[in-house]
Amino acid sequence: MTRKLGPPPPATSPAVSKSMKGNVAKNTHPEVRLRKLLRSAGYPGYRLHWRKAPGRPDISYPGRKIAVFVNGCFWHRCPHCLPSMPKSNEEFWQRKFALNAERDSRKVRELELAGWKVFTVWECELSDGDRALQRIIPALERPRDPAVP
């Protein structure tokens, strides 16, 4: 399977077109929500989309080698809430989601090989922010690695 997807099929309606144009890659609502939760829990000092980290995680703590990916349930096919598959252009969407999953696992693997602890926080987990924080905070409480900027 090649890694290029090609252009998306035309939208099935103006409403779908408007919805799809509203999707962004950075500073999504779930990402901003998690950042607020981390700050309020006393863990500021993260980097956003840090270029020096393999895979450019959404949130990273370089000194602790902790990376956090905040995944949207629809785009990354959440295993918790199992979003439905779009009914039109099903072949395109299956390929799109497969490529997303391949890219996600490649990024996690690169970070882990470089010695990073990686967390994936799903959009649906942020409805109860404590659940996501309970997984991340124990790692953040480890001492900082002074060798990392």
- Tell me about the biggest sheet? 4 strands, mixed
CATH architecture heading: 3-Layer(aba) Sandwich
Elements, N to C (H/E): HHEEEHHEH
Low-confidence stretches: none
Give the N-to-C terminal Cα separation.
38 Å
Overall 3D form: globular
CATH topology: Endonuclease, Chain A
CATH class: Alpha Beta
How big is the Rg? 17 Å
Structural category is: alpha+beta
Physical arrangement of strands within the biggest beta sheet:
1-2-3-4
CATH superfamily: VSR Endonuclease
The average pLDDT score comes to 85
How is this fold's topology laid out?
Blueprint: H1 14-21, H2 29-40, E1 47-48, E2 59-61, E3 66-71, H3 73-76, H4 90-113, E4 117-122, H5 129-140
Parallel strand pairs: 3-4
Antiparallel strand pairs: 1-2, 2-3
Helix pairs in contact: 2-5
Report on the architecture of this protein:
The structure is a single chain. The protein has a single domain (25-140), classed as Endonuclease, Chain A, CATH 3.40.960.10. 40% of the residues lie in helices and 11% in strands. It has helices at 14-21, 29-40, 73-76, 90-113, 129-140; strands spanning 47-48, 59-61, 66-71, 117-122. A 4-stranded mixed sheet has the order 1-2-3-4, with helices on both faces.
